[in-house]
Amino acid sequence: MSPAPRHSVSVGAAIVNSAGQVLAIQRRDNAHWELPGGVLELNEDIHHGLRREVHEETGYLVEPEALTGVYKNMPLGVVALVFRCHIVGGTPSTGDETAAIRWMTPTEVEQHMDQAYAVRLLDALHDGPPAIRSHDGRALIAAV
């Protein structure tokens, strides 16, 4: 019998300001623009991990409002939970993993991010049930 497949769970924050812009980070390791977030520690609850990752990457303290999407990287087995959040404190700053932080319009998100990451922020701008999508790390994979 083959071993059970293993998955990793990550969290991401879609932080939206009053102008309808979303907060994005530029990763230090590959210079890609993404939403703030990262992998949950094994003993960490979801909201605590979300708050920790956002603070480490942006300097902001956030409060989650709603789950806006569930995204699976099919080749890597990473499941990402994305939450719309609002800022409750902190001071904007970069961290060890973050080269820059920036507020982006939806158009800028589409221009600067791979589709698999842009859609997470764009989905969060809409009310309704959470989106459920699969991707290959760069682009969405059509549902079958």
Please supply descriptive tags for the structure shown above.
144 residues, alpha+beta, six-stranded mixed sheet, Nucleoside Triphosphate Pyrophosphohydrolase, 21% helix, single chain, three-stranded antiparallel sheet
Q: Could you explain how this protein is built, in words?
A:
The chain has 144 residues and is α+β, with helices and mostly antiparallel strands. The protein is built from three helices and nine strands. It has one domain (21-141): Nucleoside Triphosphate Pyrophosphohydrolase, CATH 3.90.79. It starts with 7 loop residues before the first strand and ends with a strand. The protein has helices at 46-58, 106-112, 115-124, and strands spanning 8-15, 22-27, 33-34, 37-39, 60-73, 78-90, 98-104, 131-135, 140-141. The strands form two sheets. Strands 4-1-6-5-8-9 form a six-stranded mixed beta sheet, sandwiched between helices. A three-stranded antiparallel beta sheet has the order 3-2-7.
